[in-house]
Amino acid sequence: MSHNPPQNEQRILIKGAYLVTQDAELGNFVGDILVTDGRISAVGQDLADDRARIVDGTGKAVLPGFIDTHRHNWQGALRNLGPAWTYQEYRSQVQIGLGQYFDPEDVHIGNLAADLMSLDSGVTTVRDESHISNSPEHSDAAIAAHWESGIRAVFDHGWPSTEAEQWQFGSARTHPVDIRRIRNEVLSDDSARVTLNAMLRGPELSTPEVSGKDIQLARELDLRISMHVGLGEWGAEQQAIRQLEETGLLASDMTFIHCCTSTDEELRMLAARGATASVAGALEVFMPGLGQPATNRLLAAGVRPSLSVDTETIVSGDMFGVMRATLAYQQLVLAGAAGPMDRVPDLPTFDAADLLSFATIEGARAAGIDDRTGSLTPGKEADLIMICLDHANLLPATDVAASIVAGGHAGNVDLVLVAGVVLKEDGALKGGDTVFAEAAASRDRLFRAASLPLPT
């Protein structure tokens, strides 16, 4: 089944913007970008098109839309509940405590709220790690929200949040079989705006035997795989990446999320097999119990990571905060105040330009969609954002990448396109007018079901 809309015939020509292309051959320069039929048709200087709508890019930067490679979208209506929670408190309060009470409509509004917040802040692609597969109807509702919002989404089918403790940390249950239906009947088109991946628990959250069966299933269905690994002391003990390497299952179709307590040797194994990684820098800094961001250690192993939000119940759902927190932790590494795994000499470092790369083209590679997005390369789909460098908080934008990373926020995002469709313009998001009320109603219903006091 394909939900792709008719080809977008709008022609848009952005003139005179600073282009952060993420294309090594094009580089960064002041110029123009032409969008036709939903794709980037030309990037250069002095472009002209009599049929195109002209957008003045003076004083603005255009770059590929941010790509979030790991967000639990279903929690979008529960945002900002516990910024001081530990990992165990989050699991107890949200996944175990509230997850069992979600009905399909709660999943739909949670996903929609997360998608709209993402788009407003310049995230044009989200890899939705959906461990709310309580029923086929729950998964269908999550997918429907992605079509409705207009975002590009990689739906990572996971496990239920009913009997949540039976599905993690040594679980003997194999992956829910409904993933076959979704692959065959719902998300069979890998060129569509919404596609399918498999969110597997791996040997860290299940058993080696279950992990092997789950991986076999995902590869039989020709799906990329994501896994949470290196989760606190348990991750250090289990060494999931090593287990996968020793059983011959580690491969380039895998994205490993967190890797906080994965060993340096494991990260080198990951690199050797061409696998990718997702760092949730803000969440890992805010939430005790996971470990610290592995960004610098991944770079030392030869892996350029992608970036992700993880859960909006703990941290803000925008990529600006993720980039800043990831950079802040690196500065602790340099100051000698980092966690024990980072107290090694000569760790490689990264800068603002690297962070923009992690948030765009590296995200596309991790999600397996770098052939169609992640850079301003002619021929790719027009997933792009325009940021106002002439806003008071970014002036005088001496270094464009540094200004965006150090000072940027959603209010600076003036224009958002996904596959050439305008979803935010002149700083205003299109649609979503009823989402606030629907999200509040969903939250209230869930709180009542869980016998929690309603917010006043």
UniProtKB/TrEMBL annotation:
Residues 62-422 form the Amidohydrolase-related domain. The keyword Hydrolase applies. SUPFAM superfamilies: Composite domain of metallo-dependent hydrolases, Metallo-dependent hydrolases. Transmembrane segments: none annotated. The keyword Hydrolase applies. Keywords: Hydrolase. Pfam families: Amidohydro_1. PANTHER family: AMIDOHYDROLASE-RELATED DOMAIN-CONTAINING PROTEIN (PTHR43794:SF11), AMINOHYDROLASE SSNA-RELATED (PTHR43794). This is Amidohydrolase family protein. It comes from Pseudonocardia zijingensis.
